[in-house]
Specification:
It is a peripheral membrane protein. Belongs to the cytochrome P450 family. One of its GO terms (cellular component) is endoplasmic reticulum membrane. Its cofactor is heme. This protein has a single domain, classed as Cytochrome p450, CATH 1.10.630. The termini are far apart. The radius of gyration is 22 Å and the shape is globular. By secondary structure, it is mainly α. Helix 5 crosses helix 6, helix 5 packs parallel to helix 16 and helix 10 packs across helix 16.
Amino acid sequence: MVIIILLTCLFLMIMYHCVVYYGRSGRLINQIPGCIHLPIPGKGLRICWYSPGAKWHKRRKILTPAFHFSILKEFVKTLIEEGNRAVKSFNPAEESIIEDVMLFTSHHMLNAICETSMGISLNDSDQSQQYRQTIHHMGKLVVNRFFKPWLFIDTIFNLTSQSTTQSKYLNILHSFTEKVNQIRNTFRSVEINNIGIIFFFVFVDGHDTVATSLCFSLLLLAEHKDIQDRVRNEINEVMQENNGKLTMNALQNLPYLERCLKESLRLYPSVTFISRLCTTDLKLQSYIIPKDTTMHLFIYCLHHDPNFWPDPEVFDPDRFLPENIQKRHPYSYVPFSAGLRNCIGQRFAMLELKAMIASLVYNFYLEPVDYLKDVSFKLDIVLRTSRPIRMKVIPIKRE
């Protein structure tokens, strides 16, 4: 009886705390995880994804020039170099098995995003390896706290071992951020805390999500040999036209590969849902959505809705032929969100995916070891499988 009373009191305290101090979901997000003065991740989620109108416009304006076509053109060189490094990581004389495709793609996407966004190269030094591990561990901490509302309360969270672990990881991340601040002067006009916040945003939005997309795209191509062969033929053609090299122009002339990537993002969207706060009363047909309501759109369910997608579980890149796109509702496909707050880096993400896949498919045949139909998914910020998935790469012998 005493235990029940204590648990009830604890529950009521948590509910009171949430209602009084964190009545709206935006305020809860403000506390995920850690003290608000910590630039990573603290307010990072709110500033980059949940900022109110004026602040969001200001920060969007700061970030937009970084994704201008001329900048992306320079980024492509780095992306292609990373694709070449991925190719060289395998033995060119014999087939290899990637034991964890997600880990493989995450490794190379972290390299790419670090070098393109901050001009920092992650080599194989002990410090770089420590940083890689910290990124992954910090992500797990964020997810764990995100789905346990009682840990939103700092008093409770600070009593757990996770608090000590978080402090350790944050110190590593902060030291890296300070190193970036010293080397680059790109963000001189931005307050110091926001540099760290935007830095965290770039890594979560530009690293984990693209790594997930790349993982599923490779696995789908491995499982569908006919589609993989067609992609390879297209890549071979543009390589011949560009003297055996990948370029920005070459990546822009891969329409079938682009359709494959779009279909992969339909089947396995990196971010499975998005949320929006309704700032005014909104009428949808006969329904009224009150002001301050948090609305959730489940992208995964939308992308598998048979009303929009016949045979939704089938991998069919031709769904994205222009004539087929015109027949669908424009918002039936939103892997990068939509509207004013769509993903600012979607063009960059597609270039990342194309550069990496073109390099790998040009040099290797991909074969499945594990199949997607046999795996389950786990709760996370991005779509993840519950266990590692393996894939075989077989070198293509060229004269």
